[in-house]
Amino acid sequence: MPCTRFLWLASLLIFLLTASSALAETPKKSSGFSKLLAERGFRSDTDIGGGPGSVALDQSKVSLCYYILYLHYDRRTFSWNQMEHLPFGNGRDEPWHNLDQLTLNLRYAANLSAKTKYFVSLGVSECFEKWADRLHDYNYIGGFQYKIGETSQVLIGFAAWDNPVEPFIIPIVGFQWEPNSKPGDPGTGVSATIGYPRTNVNYRFNDRIEASLGIAMDRVMYKLSEDNTARPGGYVELFDVYSGLYLNYTPIEDLTLVFGMRYYTDRSFRLYDRDSGDRTEYQINDGWGGVIKLEYAF
Question: 115 near 147, Cβ under 8 Å?
Answer without folding.
Answer: yes
